[in-house]
Amino acid sequence: MGLEPVGAIESRFTGYVEGLASVIGHADRERPLKDYCVGLVMPGERKSVEPMAAMTAPERVAAQHQSLLHFVGQSEWSDEKVLSKVRELVLPKMERHGPIEVWIIDDTGFSKQGKHSVGVAPQYCGQLGREGNCQVAVTLSIANHHASLPVAYQLYLPQEWAKDRARRRKAGVPVRIKFRTKQEIALEQIRWAREAGLPRGVALADADYGRDGKLRRGITEQGLTYVVGIQSTPLVWKPGTGPKPGRATPRWGRRNNPDLISVKEAALGLPAPAWQTIQWREGTADVLSSRFARLRVRVADANVSVDELTEEWLLIEWPEGAKEPTRYWLSTLPDDISFRDLVDIAKLRWRIERDYQELKQEVGLGHYEGRGWRGFHHHATLCIAAYGFLISERETIPPSGPPCAVLFPEFAVPTSYRPRGSALAA
User: What is the pLDDT of residues 392-403, one digit of tens each?
Assistant: First the structure.
């Protein structure tokens, strides 16, 4: 199928933004809303306010800059209402290809210099692959095999920020925001999604979240199943053993419970026939596959009574040629689920990596240069809105094109324009 005329796409984009404008509040916010969204989906290396002002209003850059800056940094419109409208507009397009299958818990980091941007602190940053000075946002996305969409997004506020009244006041951090771990924020997002009636899915998370027993229990209490990554160290009962019913909760540990072993030890003790090569999806060059084993286990958890301990799946990946297993998951999916389906669901978490790649590279999620709480979240909400439109338009993008093909012709930027920091602007 060939590409549609640009005019048809622009018409749908206008209708999409009008839908967002219906929940934005004052009518005078509609124009900056559209311009901001246009700036995010237009081609350009930088999606911060100043270059977007030059792109969307080349003959009045200074005035446009102030308009967009006020709209994203100070205007009191609701992130929750806009994200709700995005779901209303985009979810039906996603579900054309199948129902929502998973809820993906994760976080994303933004490398920063200085110490004044809200929430910035030395912490692990995925963008850097190591600890660095950065901001981190916790997110919840809904997904199927065709597409995914972030539905909740909140900045993690480190303890040094949460306790510093002067910094909080200067950055506009709401009084209601207290220190919470990333896992606690994630669980709150899960609870909110259940109360909001979002289409249910299996909760997925990496080991940074999956290692938290409180989060796993909280997901179960919300009536959801999960497939979550864990490290190699959690203790489980050896096959054929288990806690004694009716006993008081024991002190978990090898000295007190010689039948407890780590999940790594459980994996290394499996016989060769337990390992199977399983394919789960097509990659860019070939079908992806690896070697897996699975077994039913009871996880040692000091916060759960012996009578409440239940069996769940331990899924292990040990690629051919690797010296030892590389990944471990716990799952409360039914005991009759097929081996391939279990692997497929565990690996569906790859969608969040695509989310972040496109949100950062295509619509500038990490390009916001303001320092305040409101602006940080407003910018992210508008990026998710723009990304939602691109999801809706995926069928107009040729298979050989980039993930987010250029939908609109590039506006002419005046030759006299020089962005701040440019050598020519000095």
Answer: 987 544 444 444
